[in-house]
Inverse folding.
């Protein structure tokens, strides 16, 4: 865009919706906007660390049409967390497992919150639904059902 008007430039990436502008992509945490050098600087790590994450399959950046790695904000978050765990003394394999377990825990907590909203008469997304009962057609949940089915609590 250097003095040549506002011509669109092909950045080598094919994703996003029709009509998406380049600026809209910056809001997408999965858009590969950062070079290896930029990512390393933002994270305070050396470039070889990022390349080692790619080699190990821990963080797999997209490639530009020229074959250069491009990292998304989401990937920078993952790489940063892996760096913290490695700095704490974990192996990369252990750090990856910790990240997997953290993600599973977050999903389980979100599911519990969703079930609690349903149990309280809302909808899974918390909007109350058209009937005020989350769209359920039956009566309330059976006595003693607190929405934590399968949570492993002993009674």
């Amino acid at each position: 865009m250097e003095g040549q008007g506002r011509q669109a430039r092909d950045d080598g990436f094919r994703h996003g919706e029709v009509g998406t502008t380049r600026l809209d992509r910056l809001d997408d945490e999965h858009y590969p906007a950062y070079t290896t050098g930029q990512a390393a600087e933002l994270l305070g790590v050396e470039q070889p660390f990022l390349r080692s994450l790619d080699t190990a399959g821990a963080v797999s950046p997209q490639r530009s049409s020229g074959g250069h790695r491009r990292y998304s904000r989401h990937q920078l978050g993952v790489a940063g967390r892996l760096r913290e765990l490695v700095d704490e003394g974990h192996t990369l394999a252990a750090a990856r497992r910790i990240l997997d377990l953290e993600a599973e825990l977050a999903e389980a907590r979100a599911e519990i919150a969703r079930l609690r909203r349903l149990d309280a008469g809302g909808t899974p997304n918390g909007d109350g639904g058209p009937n005020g009962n989350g769209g359920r057609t039956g009566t309330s949940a059976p006595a003693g059902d607190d929405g934590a089915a399968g949570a492993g609590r002993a009674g």
Remarks:
- The chain is about 45% helix and 5% strand.
- Strands lie at 34-35, 62-63, 69-71.
